[in-house]
Every structure is written in C-alpha cells, then in structure tokens.
Please model this.
Amino acid sequence: MTSTRTFLELVCMLGGRRGGLVKSPELLVDLNPRKSEKCKARGFTVIVDGRKSQWNVVKTVVVMLQNVVPAEVSLVCVVKPDEFWDKKVTHFCFWKEKDRLGFEVILVSANKLTRYIEPCQLTEDFGGSLTYDHMDWLNKRLVFEKFTKESTSLLDELALINNGSDKGNQQEKERSVDLNFLPSVDPEMVLQTGHELLSELQQRRFNGSDGGVSWSPMDDELLAQPQVMKLLDSLREQYTRYQEVCRQRSKRTQLEEIQQKVMQVVNWLEGPGSEQLRAQWGIGDSIRASQALQQKHEEIESQHSEWFAVYVELNQQIAALLNAGDEEDLVELKSLQQQLSDVCYRQASQLEFRQNLLQAALEFHGVAQDLSQQLDGLLGMLCVDVAPADGASIQQTLKLLEEKLKSVDVGLQGLREKGQGLLDQISNQASWAYGKDVTIENKENVDHIQGVMEDMQLRKQRCEDMVDVRRLKMLQMVQLFKCEEDAAQAVEWLSELLDALLKTHIRLGDDAQETKVLLEKHRKFVDVAQSTYDYGRQLLQATVVLCQSLRCTSRSSGDTLPRLNRVWKQFTIASEERVHRLEMAIAFHSNAEKILQDCPEEPEAINDEEQFDEIEAVGKSLLDRLTVPVVYPDGTEQYFGSPSDMASTAEHIRDRMKLVNLKRQQLRHPEMVTTES
Model:
C-alpha cells in the first residue's frame, strides 16, 4: 500500500506540474471489488497522456516509473498527440529498453487504447465507461492515513496523561503544574478531521463526479468507516477525561495563583500603602500647599489603583470559582474573598477620606484667599480720599462700597462654613489612624484653621469701622452737593422769575379794576421770588456748615451767593419799577374814570381844571416811564417787554387821555355839544 501511494503521488505531481494527466486502469481494478486478485497479479498498466506535453516530460515520467515501481508495472501506454513528435526527438526506442526498464512501453493514439485495455477499465477521457474520481480517492486515502496516525499517537498520549493524573492526583496538589504534559497535537483538530473523514466515507456519491452517476464504495472505504468510528469513540472518551484532568489542574493552579496574589495585595496595602497614608496628615497653609499635597495624594492613589485593579480581577476570579460549586474549595475561597475585600475597602475608605479632607482644605484656602483679596480691595477704596465730581458719582461710589462690604460678609460666612466643615472632618481623622496618635498633628491643623478665620474676622471688623466713617462722610458730601445743586437751581428759578417779570408782566390794565388785579398778582409773584431767594440763602448757609464739617471748600458757594444776590437785586429793582407803573396806572385810570363818568351830583368836581391837569400830568409821566429802561446797579439796562408791547400800552393810555381831553372840551363849551347833537 505504501509503494502504491508513493507511485500515485509521483504521477499526480508530474501530471499536475506539466499539464499531462496520468491514468492507471489496472490500479482502478485494484480498488474495484469486482476484479479478481488474479488480474491484479499481472501488474499495472500505466497510461501516460502526452497529448498536451513535450517529449522530454513523457520521457521523464517513464524514467521515474522505472526508478520507483518497476516490478509493479507491466505495460506503459504513452498516448501520443495528433501531430507526433519529431523523429529526432523520439529516436529513443522504448521496445529496445524493455529489459533495462523492466516493463514494456508503447506509443499509441487515444482512439486505439481499447486494443490494449478494456473500455470498462478506461475513463471517459480515453473513450471508456469507467466512473472514477482518482483525486477524490487519493485525498480520502491520505486523510485516512493521517487521521489514523495522529489519532493513534494522540490516544497513547492522552491515556498516559490521564492515567498519570489518576495516580498522582494527591502529589500534584502539592507541586506546581508541569507545562510539558500537553499532547503533541490538538485533540479538537484531530476530532474534527475524523468527523469530516467519516462524513465523506459515508457519502454515496463522489463529491467531484460529473453527471450524477452513482457508484458503490470500494473495499478499503467500507473497511475504513468502522475503524474511523472506533478511533473517534476512543478519542472522545480519552479527550473527555483529559479535559476533566486539565480542568482540575487549571482550577488548582488558579487557586494557588489567587492565594499568592491575594497575599501580595493584602501585604502591600497593610504595609507600604498604609505607611504612605500615615505619613500624610497635613492640610497645607495655602492653596499652593494644598495643591501640592493633593498631587502627592494622587500619586499615592495611582499606586493603590494598580493594586485595586488586581483586587477587582481577583474578586471576579474568586466569584467564578465560587459559582463552579466545588465544596472542597468554597470555605477557602470565601475566606480569601472576605479578607481581600476587608483590606481593600478599608484602604479605599482611607484614601477617599484623605482626598475629601484635602479637597475641603483646598476649598477653605480658596475661600480665604478670595476673602483676603476682597478685604484688600475694600481697604484700598477706603484708603483713597474721596474726590467725586458730583452727587451721582458719590452715590455710585457709596453703592459700590456697600456691595463690596456685603460681598465680604458673604465671603466670611462662607469661610466659617468651610472652616467648620473642615474641623469636623479633622475631628474624625483619628478613626482610621491605625493606632497612630494624630492629636498633635490635628492640633496644628485646627489652630491654623481657627487662626485664619479669626484673622479674617478682625480684618473685616476694621473695614466695617472704616466703612461707617466713609459712609457718613459720603452722605454729608451727597447732602453738600445736593445743597449746592439746589442753591444753583434757586438762582436759576429766580433768574427765570426775573425774565418772566420783564417779558410777560408788561400789561398795565384797561381800567382801574384790572390794574388793581394785576398789582395784586404781581405782589404774589414777588412773594414767590422772595421764597425762592430765602430758600437759596438757606441752602448756601447749609453748604457752609457741611464744608466746615468735611473740612473742605465748597465749589459753588463762592460764586452762587453773589449770583443769587445779584439776581435778587435785579429782581427787586424790576419789581419796584413794575409796582410804580401799576400804581401810576391805577391813579390814572381812577381819575380818568371819574371824569369820564357822568356825575351830575358832583359838578364842581368835574369842573375842576386841576383834576384834568393832574390826569394829563400822570398820563404823560406814565408814558415817559414806559420809555425808560430798568437800570441795574452794574449799569446794565433792561426794558419791560418788546417795543411793540410798550407801543400798544402807550397807545391805550393816549386814547384814554384823548377821551379825557374831549370831556374837558365838552365841559368848557357845552353849547358845542348841543349844536353837535
């Protein structure tokens, strides 16, 4: 069988590389149960298909047959192409070399192969009727032999491993596992190969045959099936035992590794890890110091994180083993899990406590720094002398000062809250100190925190006292500016009253009654101006008092008082002039009205020439006064109303004088009136 396989591999290799297909019908007879052993003993008849190959390839195949299996070959039929090789090439005569080769070699056309070989032994390529897939048979045979060899070797190895495990089970618990006990091949791959081979052997058709022609398995395939099934059953049994052995060994190995890693984690956390935490007790005296301590703590946490990661992995492994439900390991696993969890949780709590303490310290120092900056800013405002431009700026500055003081109050309250929270945390520090006396360290931290809060309280109190003084001063300044503004407003109002007096108070009335009304209104108008002037004087006196209190000079008192007095003097002069004109108008209208009215009971009064002269004199005097401007003490002049207004008033007076003169003429010459009538 070995020589046959070598031969088949050889011809397949040659045919596959050169493109020529080599067929062996007699070999098919060897595989066909319908042929007798007598036919097989005659030797192989080899067909070398040279129709698509060169002569040197065919010659090489023949020589290789002579070198490999000369005794098994009786005849070699070389199928020549339609156009035969050159005679110079084929000068080699095979028939003369029969004795040396050990078999006969003939050259024959494809259509004449039936002269030497029966058609039932020839495939369709050569005009025969044999249904046969040589590559399929060869592949199955190679797979079968490989599976048989590997499975036999694997069974021996697995039996040795399994038997050795049963005998030395107790000893292996006390020593580490030998990694060389693994089999030389993968059992899964061998089992998969066996299942695939058995499936192929049980098929009733060639996988690669064309036309769907049915065939019957040959003898070796029929015999191989139970052999493969038996090997597969043995492999499954041994492999199942092997898997159990591996599982037990893996579990024991895993348990030992877990025990070792658990002790490593516990020893480090209770040793170097705890020492690192014991060495860190301060909280720093500033933001920078607290940040440095936080950075150092983060480095410690980073080192712990590596061991905590190992803890998580170990906890998962222990949980998996506990779920497996092996009674003999449950107690030990639970003890390891409890020990590991206690140590890790305690250390994690210490790290978290320390981190929270440092974070609280950082926040405390941050609030203290912000409050200190706020107090510095407030003190800077209080140390700068106030020189505002007006009351609005003083109000804005005062508002800003109040806001800063309120912000300081809020900051101090926040500092107290942060400090108290930090003190509460420090008081709980002794609970995880592992017996270490932290009273001295805690006292330093407590003293520092209380000192910071007391210092901030004192600074805030000093600023509050200064704010009270500054507030009083600024309120006085606001009042001063208000008095100055109101005094200036009083001057403006008085100026507006003077302007209204000169421009609008110009009428003298059409009769005595109207003129009296105008005079009464003017007196009330003068009372308003007097009140305005008095109000301005009082405001200016208040500015003097405030300036003395503030120890400063008023910006407006130097010129506001002279302006007030000047405007008031002008108003007084104009008002007196207005009164004189109104009084003269009342006298003029009263006398004129007496004369113009018919009063027979007083003829003597009417006939008095002196009255007419007096009315005329008053009228002329009034007309003259209307043309005269008001002269102020500084020499400036100002007229009442416009020229047209004065002309209208003068015209009305002249008309009244004409009526008086006409009355006078009538009284002198009464006959003229009768004649005219």
Observations:
- The chain has a mean pLDDT of 76.
- DSSP finds 19 helices and six strands in the chain.
- The first strand starts at residue 22 and ends at 23.
